[in-house]
């Protein structure tokens, strides 16, 4: 069926961003995991990562790992989120490595792996202040002691996450703390940590400023590959494309109308009472998408027009000086939230361009 809105995915630009980031981080010995949750495990994009030097693909959803495996993508697959107890069987089946913070889950992973005489690899996430997932550093050694008593799982790394919940910045201090923890663990347990994974797209400023990156040898990147930005201030990374994705929709109504609703007013569709500025008569265009399709607040029009608001399935534009007509296409840049939402939406067509 024909969808009236689409996201255009410029594969050459994604390939370029991936290649440049592999070079940049590789220059100081950091290997990348390509985070695929943002694009719902899109195997065409995953393939581009692999062809540009990213050989670990990380996703928070097992269905996405399965999708990439089934599509024949050849990489190491990492489950980016601590497994739910109820999904442990599928974790052992579809993930080579999973990130973990709970002993009960690790015990079940070990039991499950033992049933098939395999060893499941785990990376332990350490809490470094952002207060999403992680084992408290003071408890880490005791935790590792218990994990090492289990057969069926092998600790292959430690990691930390930043700027996801608390907005905490990766810094010289917290990165060297993680690095020191890696030293302590390797020495005390004679445990070679293959991956010391220091964060995500928010680590760019730390990385570029760092004289020494210590033992950090891995980062997990999503947004900076897709949107060419670091994520603390959303600054563009020099030499990368910020427009690999474009949202495109179609005008379904275009009329000169007042700028302020008239009649008695109550709540709108989303339970809000909006305030309107009177700009007199304006050209109001309606585009054929709404809040059910995309996080509208994350869109920026390419033309000099303004998004006035949206309901579930209509987005109202002030066309300003642009003579938008029914049937015209309107194009928008996306931020991270908008990108996530369009990639997840079943109502938006995904169209690849500049195919390599
Ligand atoms: C989503 C996620 C990432 C990727 O974050 P970006 O900001 O897109 O680079 C990295 N690590 C973990 C644990 C994540 O959940």
UniProtKB/TrEMBL annotation:
GO CC terms in record: cytosol
InterPro entries registered for this protein in UniProt: Ala_racemase, Ala_racemase_N, PLP-binding_barrel
Positions of the Alanine racemase N-terminal domain: 9-228
An example Gene Ontology molecular-function term: pyridoxal phosphate binding
SUPFAM superfamilies noted in UniProt: PLP-binding barrel (SSF51419)
Database matches in Pfam families: Ala_racemase_N
Keywords: Isomerase, Pyridoxal phosphate
Cofactor: pyridoxal 5'-phosphate
Protein name as catalogued: Alanine racemase
